[in-house]
Amino acid sequence: MKPVSAIIFKDIAIELRSKESLASMIMFAVLVLVVFNFAFESTGLDKSLVAPGSLWVAVSFAAILALNRSFAKETDNDCLQGLLLAPLSRGELYLAKVSSNFLFMLIAEIIILPLFVVFNALNFDFRFAEVIAIVFLGTLAIAGIGTILSTISSNTRMKEVMLPVLQIPLTLPLIIAAVESTREILMDDTGQVSSWLYILAGFTIVYLTLSYLLFEFAVED
Amino acid sequence: MTATLALQSQDIRKTFGHFTALGGVSLTVERGEFVALFGRNGAGKTTFLKVAATLVRATHGKLAIEGVDIHEEPEKARRHIGFLSHNTYLYRDLNPVENLRFFGRLYGVPDLEGRIHQLLERVGLQRRKSDPVRAFSRGLHQRLGLARVMLHNPSVILLDEPYTGLDANAVDMLNGLLDEAAAAGKTVILTTHDFDQGIRAATRTVIIDRGKVVLDSPAKDSAARDAYTEYIRLGLSR
What we know:
The complex is a heterodimer of chains A (221) and B (238). Chain A has 221 residues and is an all-alpha fold. Chain A has helices spanning 2-18, 20-41, 47-75, 79-85, 90-119, 126-154, 159-186, 193-219. Chain A is globular and about 55 Å long. Chain B is an alpha/beta fold. Chain B has helices spanning 45-52, 74-78, 96-107, 112-122, 138-150, 168-183, 195-200, 222-233; strands spanning 5-16, 19-30, 34-38, 60-65, 68-69, 81-84, 156-160, 187-191, 204-209, 212-218. The two termini of chain B are 31 Å apart. The model of chain B has no long low-confidence stretch (mean pLDDT 90). The interface between A and B is medium-sized, with 27 and 32 residues.
């Protein structure tokens, strides 16, 4: 697994220097939370009804920003070709890129989640821990499918547009499952939560497995 | 596939949609040979090198590097290959040491820090080792690209237009490195549009035209220069 960790550390080193992905993700996600908070503040709506939606809009769209940068870094100066020349399988390369994308998304979420709690007058209690677990699983699924989609879109002319066009429809089922399970936990109405979690976990496994197997075809000419 | 050959290709074909880039290239290169590969723009030189480097999957045919089939054991084959094209595959946000350290870890290079120091000294970048690569000129990029290629001590070195954009000093440095590699018994396959640079150290000349090998002769053979003139300078095809 040394090549995998080498790629992850390289991505971290580049991000620490450029700060492109994290800064844009955090800025965007915080803006979404602020705008949603003020938009629904005056309506008198129960916040636990709309809060899960705002959280997952922030998470999923911020992820698109990070994923767009992820392979842009590799296409600059054709660096991806340098990775493809290395003695590691395409599957290992996929795992490395998923891991670094997942890591950056989690770092952004460490800042997003406390703000989400504050804006929606929630408590840092066991329910919050359950929401964290759902965010963790949902983020893994988004990173899993998003990594291969960002690879595909990075080879197209309209790469910035192509990624959301591909990603949003494919992540819609898991975003719905994540929103519903988050809502049930926040409303303390967990009758259906296990069904939504099964769907979320199922999509995570399917997306990770399929992307791992198909990455070879996405990454080569 | 013969284990004693550095490169053995059998009827390699590659099509991109309706376009045939390689129409059946069969080539055997023995260990220690220095092959200059010539051809017009679009003749298929780069595609062939990319297939050999496992960057492009051939539509048809077999190719082995050091007796290792690139389709069956690509990771093993890649350990033998050093590939440099006009793009150096270096990360602009990292400095030379960080770039080489990263690639060294990918290849599992032993005594990595010592090897990095040695190579930076050799390509004349020791004083610039802490500068980000984005501040480098084209020539410095190519020097560091060469260090990346040599880092894991490959036995087969594939170079696609390595002289492009290099000043005289950098050309001398590149030639020196290639001479050292040849003296160390490494196999070098180089594409270039500069005939004199190409055959300077070559032991063999191969000309590719329209995706096929049309000439394969000893480098200093007069037939090589005649064929070069015919195919590339005059643009004639038989």
